[in-house]
Structure formats: C-alpha cells, structure tokens
Design goal:
Length: about 250
C-alpha cells in the first residue's frame, strides 16, 4: 500500500534532520517514496520531493497508483518492474535516437533525426561534501523490458552548483562514480557502486549517462527496433566513509 503524499512531508523533514545530525545518509528521498502528488503520466519527476530534471529531457516517477499505460507499477509503458524498495521508483532515457519512421518504400525504415536524446535527474544533498573526505555512492538501475538498446556510462556526478541545460543531449561532465560496461539485463536491478574523494563543496548529485565515462550503445535485437535504452532507478545513497585516524 502506498504512503499518503502530502502528509509525508513532515515525516520526510524529520528524516532529513536525523540524517543531518548523524552524518549518515546524504541523499534526500533516494527511494522516491515521498511525493507532493501521485504521478498520473510521463515527465513528472518533480513530484518526487527533492528531485528535478537537468535538461529539457524530462524524466518519470513511477507509482503503484498510476495507470499501467504510462507510469504504473509493476506494468508501465516501458515494461514490467517491481521496485527495488518501497512503492515507487524513477526512470530516465539513458539514450534515445530521435530518428523518425521512413514512410517511403524501400531503403532504411528510419530517417535521421537532429540529435541523440538523454535524460538526467538531480537532487540537492543534505549538506555539502567535505574536501578530502571519501564518500560511498550506490544506486540501483534496471533496463526496462521494452528497451531494444543498452548503454554503458551510467553514473553519478557531484557538483557545487545545480546543473541546468536547455537541450536534450548528453552532458559533458565526468561522473565521479560510474558502472563498468553495459547495463543490459532487462527487468533485473543492477547496483552501481563506488567511492570517490570530494573536492569539497559539492551540493548536488546528478544521475544519467555520461559519454566521458566510456559511453557506448549496444543493439539487443536484430532488425528494426525502438532505438532506446530506458532505465529504472531506485535506492540512491551517498554516505561519508569513516575518517582515518591520524598515526600516533
């Protein structure tokens, strides 16, 4: 059973305060359980408290109360998937070719579009990262069942300022943590996990596909396909590792 949306805000704020006092979890609403309002169609990641889009490629939040034909759980427009945890998860296009159907007879079934398309989700951390401190980052992704492509280069990037771009293309920054190789197992949660040393002052986490991390695309079927790799994401976490004690 899903949690009520509006009444959870006070609970969420209490959780934030506890995290700040203990110095443990730094991601707000990493499981997308707290919503301003239930989603009922695509492009509603902003309804997940604390989350936003980076570009004009808009991402989704999925719910057990949403229609199966769009962003329902377990059935939705991109496939069938249960949450890794809780009652919700988010999703983004890791890559999508905006080529269009070629209605002329003969030749390639597609005609070239203007650009490849990718989406990113972002959230402000509980507090800025400390210079020289080691942090552990983890989140879970799953390739949607209706995807005919898979990509590499999925990861998390940390920045002082919130990224905001007025396009739908790949971002050029290099993520501090990313997955090695392709994420190509449909309908199965795969953990992306790693550690990094903070420069200090990073306040935002952004998740998506990063060509600077070794992006490549992989076709999963023979013949014409839908030319996209859509990924569900859940269980996002950032934690500071214990500080090393100075040698005596």
């Amino acid at each position: 059973m899903t949690r009520p949306c509006l009444s959870t805000l006070a609970v969420l704020l209490t959780t934030f305060s506890l995290a700040q006092s203990t110095g443990e979890e730094l991601v707000r609403n990493g499981g997308f359980e707290f919503l301003d309002k239930e989603p009922d169609t695509y492009d509603m990641i902003k309804r997940a408290v604390g989350w936003d889009n980076v570009t004009i490629g808009y991402s989704e939040v999925f719910s057990k109360l949403a229609p199966a034909k769009t962003v329902g759980i377990p059935m939705n427009d991109y496939g069938q998937m249960d949450p890794k945890e809780g009652d919700h998860y988010a999703g983004f296009f890791g890559w999508k070719d905006d080529e269009k159907w070629n209605f002329e007879t003969g030749g390639d079934p597609f005609v070239a579009g203007w650009s490849s398309y990718s989406e990113y989700i972002t959230s402000e951390l509980m507090k800025p990262l400390e210079e020289g401190r080691e942090y552990e980052v983890s989140f879970w992704v799953a390739l949607s069942g209706n995807s005919d492509r898979a990509v590499s280069g999925i990861g998390a990037y940390f920045s002082e300022d919130k990224l905001n771009e007025q396009h739908r293309r790949f971002l050029r920054q290099k993520p501090q943590v990313s997955v090695d190789g392709f994420v190509e197992k449909k309908g199965e949660w795969v953990e992306v996990k790693g550690t990094f040393e903070a420069d200090g002052g990073e306040r935002y986490i952004t998740i998506g596909t990063w060509p600077s991390a070794g992006f490549d695309g992989k076709r999963l079927i023979a013949g014409p396909d839908n030319k996209y790799a859509y990924y569900y994401v859940d269980g996002i976490s950032v934690k500071a590792l214990p500080k090393e004690e100075p040698a005596k």
